[in-house]
């Protein structure tokens, strides 16, 4: 009987110290975060593994180069060259007109004209002073 009493006391002591495990808030938070992360991983994996739907309505059209006869191509090239030449001529004409306009704005005077004006001014001065005496 000693053995049974001892066993009962052992179970009683064990029952007294055996309490329900307390659930801490941080453990619960971590469990929730782990569940969320696992769910996200599962969704991403499903998205990666799904096969893309490719419409198989009609095959892509094969485009072939358009063959332009030489006479038509020659006309096109000549038309482009005429347009370029006209543009260049217009630019040169505009530059020439601009230069002429600048020349008209600048007073053109030679040394001879200045000497003639100087002589005229001296003559007028001499006449005006000679007549006043």
Q: How would you explain this protein's 3D organization?
A:
There is one protein chain. The protein is an all-alpha fold. The protein has a domain at 70-132. The chain is built from four helices and no strands. It has helices at 2-17, 25-49, 70-105, 111-132. The longest helix has 36 residues, at 70-105. The model has no long low-confidence stretch (mean pLDDT 84).
Q: Which helices and strands appear, and what pairs or packs with what?
A:
Elements: H1 2-17, H2 25-49, H3 70-105, H4 111-132
Number of strands: 0
Share in β-strands: under 5%
Class by SSE composition: mainly alpha
Oligomeric state as shown:
single chain
Output mean pLDDT.
84
What gap, in angstroms, lies between the N and C termini?
A: 172 Å
Determine Rg (CA atoms, Å): 55 Å
Q: What key phrases describe this protein's structure?
A:
133 residues; mainly alpha; 4 helices
């Amino acid at each position: 009987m000693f053995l049974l009493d001892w066993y009962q006391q052992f179970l009683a002591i064990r029952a007294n110290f055996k309490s329900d495990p307390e659930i801490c808030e941080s453990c619960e938070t971590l469990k929730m975060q782990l569940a969320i992360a696992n769910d996200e991983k599962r969704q991403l994996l499903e998205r990666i593994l799904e096969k893309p739907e490719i419409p198989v309505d009609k095959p892509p059209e094969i485009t072939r180069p358009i063959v332009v006869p030489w006479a038509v191509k020659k006309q096109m090239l000549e038309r482009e060259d005429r347009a370029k030449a006209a543009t260049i001529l217009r630019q040169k004409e505009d530059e020439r007109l601009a230069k002429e306009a600048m020349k008209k704005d600048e007073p053109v005077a030679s040394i001879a004209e200045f000497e003639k004006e100087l002589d005229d001014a001296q003559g007028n001065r001499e006449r005006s002073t000679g007549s006043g005496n």
